[in-house]
Write a structure and sequence with these properties.
Number of helices: 2
Strand order of the largest sheet: 1-2-3
Mean pLDDT: 88
Radius of gyration: 13 Å
Low-confidence stretches: none
Shape: globular
Structural class: alpha+beta
């Protein structure tokens, strides 16, 4: 069994960045790195899933919502985000 490498970025850091930039009304950040152990990309960073709803997304197409999320976590990507799956919630 392969161990998941340790990287500086955490789900909490992602959550804090998203709260700061997007003021979400619902947010869940899940570290799914353990599901990708042994995967080639696992050596270069962690895998996260973000489930989010924000009023900032109102009226925006999916690609624009993705850009807002990636802009919010841009400083964290070099710290070890290999993959970021984003699910936009409807409330």
């Amino acid at each position: 069994m392969h161990a998941t490498p340790t990287f500086g970025v955490t789900a909490l850091a992602i959550e804090q960045a998203l709260h700061q930039h997007l003021s979400p009304t619902a947010l869940e950040v899940i570290d799914e790195s353990h599901l990708h152990a042994g995967h080639v990309g696992a050596a270069s960073g962690r895998h996260f899933r973000v489930r989010i709803h924000s009023e900032r997304f109102a009226g925006l197409p999916r690609i624009a919502r993705h850009r807002l999320v990636y802009d919010a976590v841009a400083e964290l990507i070099p710290q070890g985000i290999h993959a970021l799956a984003i699910e936009f919630l409807s409330l």
